[in-house]
């Protein structure tokens, strides 16, 4: 049977669906945030299928040892995969999160030429659309909520997010953290970005939160190659959400209501 592989470009052509469920998210590092799959498909017995298996196996094998890595399929230099864990978390958390992400890819993106899954503490992507090393500040998911705050809270939020932007380019995966008063913030870039591209992505993410979250006491935004979050210590859980366009197929986004890191 002839191999059918279309470009795996994850175009923002369909909206994603959001589902909320109550509870705390302490240590729930494998909680699902979003997923997207390309329209292009491949045959199960094709060389491309072998390449996808090889790339994702390498991803799983590498996760216990490093927070980021990328791999190229031995038989197809255009097919690449990568993963990125939150760089401040232990290797055991990274490994478990990546395994969960790969399982999600298998169930949600079976036979798709490209796919991506973002869990709470890690991101996995594969495809043949030349995404490696390229900047991507498209908004994939944004959520604001919590008990409404006041102007003082907004000032602390903006200061905490500003600390992320002002931070020197970090080593080992682009994780940044900041705080101001009762508000904490963090961000994470995908490791294929340069230091400047990471800083630019964090700037774009924090600008989205400042512009879109009003007096909310918690918020998070996921761009194509980075994300940022803020939360007020002791604040309420998310109570509202804004979901932007997704990758190319509709999936349920399940995120526990919380404001934790």
TrEMBL record:
Its main location: other. Residues 30-131, 135-235 form the Gnk2-homologous domain. Keywords: Cell junction, Cell membrane, Disulfide bond, Host-virus interaction, Membrane, Repeat, Signal, Transmembrane, Transmembrane helix, Transport. It comes from Dichanthelium oligosanthes. One of its GO terms (cellular component) is plasma membrane. InterPro entries: Cell2Cell_Antifungal, GNK2, GNK2_sf. PANTHER family: ANTIFUNGAL PROTEIN GINKBILOBIN-2-LIKE, PLASMODESMATA-LOCATED PROTEIN 7. Residues 1-26 form the signal peptide. Belongs to the cysteine-rich repeat secretory protein family. Plasmodesmata-located proteins (PDLD) subfamily. It is a single-pass type I membrane protein. It comes from the Eukaryota. This is Cysteine-rich repeat secretory protein 60. Pfam families: Stress-antifung.
